[in-house]
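Illustration: Phage tail assembly chaperone.
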Amino acid sequence: MTRFSDAAGRLAGVAGWLLGWRPDEFWRATPAELAAVLRAARGEDAPGDGVDGGELARLMGVMPD
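Result:
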């Protein structure tokens, strides 16, 4: 049986090596975010059209940091 700490340590290493994430970036990410980024890195997700200017402005207003 794999312990959570062992699996988390391996995933943190992958995120650091493949994505350039620092430990705090890894721990702030949700499992869904990490999975989405890893799928994209493997080429499993085709790029979309992106976000238009209105949606970007809305997102920036909601999340100013």
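Reading the tokens back as a structure: The mean pLDDT is 83.
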